[in-house]
Specification:
Length: about 280
């Protein structure tokens, strides 16, 4: 369960509450919308989040605010109180839950036979491009090799798997034709001559109508993966320290495989059903 989806759902509720000018929320439709939002928290979001971080106490303050929303929706209450309650909920979630939930979500480790292998990602990657799928499998095999003196080549190959997949799903021309990209070029907020990996991530998710918080989270983690894999690729150590640094490299690449798995799981086209 992506924590960004919850924030998007909350944002939609706030927008809905702001559409009307009446001081009191007396519309049955809007009150039912509030009830549905609370129901989604207890039936879907909360259960998924507890699976990510198994600490029930962290969610109790959110539960209390949800109970307040249920009480508000049971009668005619001030629109200002609704909005204040939702804003309080948003602040509480961002300050206390967003970071641990997001870290857990993007680093979730697949339960697979080979260390770091995500079978679903492997299948979907093969459907996109067989060469990329083979490179992905080679990365996993490299990480299983205890005798390698360096894993910088492994980091480079993993980086190219991610880049290659993005390039196939979002060409430079596709991204550069987007209004949001053109606007960023016009107002000077971006200087790079070509779209970045994060911008390609944004393009793919926007094409699938993902919420803004989900897109921002994926962009952020794409930048992080690029930076950390790049650091491993560029690292240069004295031969005398090779054995020590090989272990560090292996640990870092294995950690980044988790993030790459999560990103590709979000970005890759679904597996085609059997004919």
């Amino acid at each position: 369960m992506n924590p960004a989806d919850f924030l998007d759902s909350l944002e939609r509720l706030l927008i809905s509450l702001s559409r009307y000018r009446s001081k009191v929320v007396n519309s049955l439709e809007q009150r039912n919308q509030v009830r549905s939002f609370v129901g989604a928290w207890f039936e879907q979001y909360r259960k998924g989040f507890v699976e990510l971080i198994a600490d029930e106490d962290l969610f109790l303050p959110i539960d209390d605010v949800m109970h307040t929303l249920v009480k508000l929706a049971s009668g005619r209450n001030s629109r200002r109180i609704y909005k204040q309650t939702c804003n309080s909920l948003q602040t509480n979630f961002r300050n206390n839950l967003l970071v641990p939930l997001t870290r857990a979500y993007w680093s979730r480790a697949p339960e697979a036979a080979m260390p770091g292998m995500d079978p679903d990602v492997a299948k979907r990657l093969k459907g996109l491009d067989e060469a990329l799928a083979e490179s992905y499998e080679q990365v996993i095999e490299d990480l299983s090799d205890d005798d390698r003196k360096t894993y910088r080549g492994t980091a480079s190959e993993l980086r190219e798997v991610l880049r290659g997949a993005l390039n196939l799903m979002a060409s430079d021309d596709d991204v550069m034709h987007m209004d949001w990209y053109k606007e960023a070029r016009r107002n000077g907020t971006r200087k790079e001559p070509k779209p970045t990996q994060a911008e390609k991530t944004k393009y793919i998710l926007r094409q699938r109508n993902a919420g803004s918080s989900a897109v921002e989270a994926a962009e952020s983690y794409m930048d992080s993966v690029e930076e950390r894999l790049g650091h491993v690729v560029r690292a240069s150590y004295r031969r005398a320290s090779d054995s020590t640094h090989a272990g560090v490299e292996r640990t870092e690449v294995a950690q980044q495989v988790k993030y790459v798995n999560a990103l590709l799981s979000e970005l890759l086209p679904p597996e085609s059903p059997p004919a």
